[in-house]
Amino acid sequence: MKKNQQLKEIAKTRRDHLGRYLYELDNAYRKITIPYIQNHGFPEFTPGYLQLLSQLDVMSEIKTLVLIERMGISKQAVSRMIKKCEELGYIQRKADKDDERNKVIGFSKKGVELMSIAADAIREAEEDFRKKMGNDDFDNLKKLTAKLCKRMGLVAVDSEFD
Q: 109-133 and 18-39 are packed helices; what angle lies between their axes, rounded to 10 degrees?
């Protein structure tokens, strides 16, 4: 293959792949949700908190060690995020009932309020995407994305809430 053709192929692959589309959609999603959250009582909220808070469930607590494993980053980085979110009042730490040397993390009252606003922001973003795609295409995209994530073991798909 000639060098020019090879460069064209590389350029095409870099522009046209699922990872790029998901990245762009995530950016578009955040451009709607983050300002919404900030404008509804949480002006200090930044995208950096999403990595931690998205791993928590409003209905239960999570062990710190499980959280570190899920996030796939260093213990020190997770500890810094936990500390900052705790300082902001979004989460609370307490001793693990099974092993008091370890901690569990859950949302505080303020954190649940934040998640309520975040749920409104998510609905607003999804409505914006739905308007651009149409109901059937949006529902299909969401269903197929959830299916792929589930098959790859990336997220728990909560059928009890469907």
A: 130
Cβ pair 33, 122 in contact under 8 A: yes
Strand, coil or helix: 162: coil
Owner of token pair 């299916």: 147
Task: Specify the number of domains making up the chain.
Answer: 1
Question: Which residues lie closer than 8 Å to 73 by C-beta, 6 or more apart?
Answer: 51
Residue 116: give the domain boundaries: 3-150
| CB count in 10 Å sphere of residue 28 | 14
Instruction: Let me know if residue 155 belongs to a domain.
Output: no
- Average pLDDT by stretches of 10, the chain with 162 residues: 86 90 94 97 93 89 89 91 96 88 92 97 97 97 91 66 44
State if pTM tops 0.90: no
